[in-house]
């Protein structure tokens, strides 16, 4: 059921350790700070930090910050917070690929001196054209045979900003006929006149991902450089740099299949579009699969880590993972750990005609049916109550076991009541129900008849008003971005958010931001991190009660 699935990288490392091939492992999680992290990144985080935890190694947090135009300090801060919130600790300080810009530049000069790199004046379009295709070899650039002196001079002038963006690049000189297109003289540096969040205006050139990643791994002593399968074709290039540069260590790249979840986008670029277009309420909107959105929705770190264990790590593309597996992980956590409470989402007034105006009982109710460590709740009972409008039907079908005219129902933790009268306004709208209590039913069954239904309720005198936000999938189709040529925004669910003005039992008045509850018979809810301010109560529905995860 919820046990961990196979993880081939973990098995491989265990074997290496047992065989004495490696003593201490070093992994890294290398996000680009161009957006917030999402559930796909959580898989990579749990894998990299999890391996280090399990084998007594280190995991580094390294920002892959070679593209300053798209990067921001705010993303760096959010990513650090997400990793910590998930419960992981990076070894040493946070690192940046930009910490290695000086060293990378020296290595670029090294390749030039060895005749293994050159400055190319072809335009980006020409470079693409010269590169060839899968079936046709590329052809050499006319600038490929420049002398080392000229290349060194041009690279230095690129660095200080003498050339326009797109005017010149530095390329490795490998093989324009290589079957793997990544080896057809890949780009090492581009001219970019951009301010960088770490290095300021020091550089007018920025290294490519390929020229940066493996060397950064080597400089940090990373042993296992774990990445997603789209980098498999880059591995020969990763190794070419390690073979041709005087690097201090020899990391190994290992690829695994990325996570794809149904009804969910796992692409920062697409999530950013939803944020920029104000389709959602920022990067941590509870409908987004961002780690901070899931946090705001009420996911626990343990549930996300559990989910990542359940999906496992393979090299085979696992297709679409069912989001029901993710909701299963949080539901079973909350089932065990969330305090219970009663909350009425659609309040309908009930007046108990045989209860006196000043009558007041206070029931002591367990915070959780199986958790004696949780505080007991004080639940007041009075003449006027709120029940949920959906728990009453004027003309009920046969199997309706809740309240109806002339019918009985049990109030949870309290008496059995009977509905005697339905009060309506002039327009025929139901205003309130007049009911009577059978005082002989507290903690015992009524005499001579069966009452099947139990409904939740809140004392009208003591109930606390609150806003409750019900979330549904943001997209109506399983794979909103499946058709690359269509606009995924067409699949937005217009009902992904429903806001209710609800009334909760008084114990909820003290709810701290981010505290989690089961609203009995309704679902699991979390007090909003941001909006529970100045006595205002806002709850986000994390998940419903029903589990649809088919094991
Ligand atoms: P996106 O396309 O959303 O921008 P990315 O891969 O470009 O994702 P990075 O910041 O470079 O974003 O990702 C950091 C790490 O997280 C990388 O090692 C990447 O392979 C991994 N990662 C990203 N998305 C997923 C995913 N869906 N499943 C597993 N790992 C992922
Ligand atoms: Mg990336
Ligand atoms: Mg990306």
What does this molecule look like?
With 551 residues, the chain is of the alpha/beta class. The protein folds into three domains: 8-256, HUPs (Rossmann fold, 3-Layer(aba) Sandwich), CATH 3.40.50; 268-337 and 466-504 and 511-543, Glutamyl-tRNA Synthetase, domain 2; 341-462, Ribosomal Protein L25, Chain P. It is 25% helix and 22% strand. The chain has twelve helices and 25 strands. The protein has helices spanning 8-18, 39-54, 73-85, 101-113, 124-130, 148-160, 209-220, 235-244, 268-276, 291-297, 301-311, 323-337, and strands at 26-29, 58-63, 95-96, 117-120, 169-172, 187-191, 205-207, 224-228, 252-256, 339-341, 343-344, 347-352, 361-365, 377-381, 384-388, 408-411, 416-424, 430-438, 454-455, 457-459, 464-471, 497-504, 516-519, 523-527, 538-543. The strands form six sheets. The chain has a seven-stranded mixed beta sheet, covered by helices on one side. Strands 19-16-17-18-12-15-20 form a seven-stranded mixed beta sheet, with no helix packed on it. Strand 23 (516-519) and strand 24 form a beta hairpin. The longest helix has 16 residues, at 39-54. The site of adenosine-5'-triphosphate has 16 residues, from helix 2, strand 8 and helix 9. It is an enzyme of class 6 (ligase). It catalyses: tRNA(Gln) + L-glutamine + ATP = L-glutaminyl-tRNA(Gln) + AMP + diphosphate. Belongs to the class-I aminoacyl-tRNA synthetase family.
Instruction: Tell me the structural class.
Output: alpha/beta
Flag low-confidence runs. none
- Distinct small molecules bound, one entry per kind: adenosine-5'-triphosphate, magnesium ion
Which topology of the largest domain does CATH recognise?
Rossmann fold
- Please tell me what the overall shape is: elongated
CATH superfamily of the largest domain: HUPs
What is the CATH level 1 assignment of the largest domain? Alpha Beta
- State the share of residues found in helices, binned by percent: 10-25%
Care to count the β-strands? 25
Q: What's the arrangement of strands in the largest beta sheet?
A: 10-23-24-25-21-22-11
The proportion of residues in beta strands is 15-25%
Whole-number tally of structural domains: 3
Number of helices: 12
Radius of gyration (Å) = 31 Å
CATH architecture of the largest domain: 3-Layer(aba) Sandwich
Describe the biggest sheet?
Answer: 7 strands, mixed
The average pLDDT score comes to 96
Distance between the termini: 6 Å
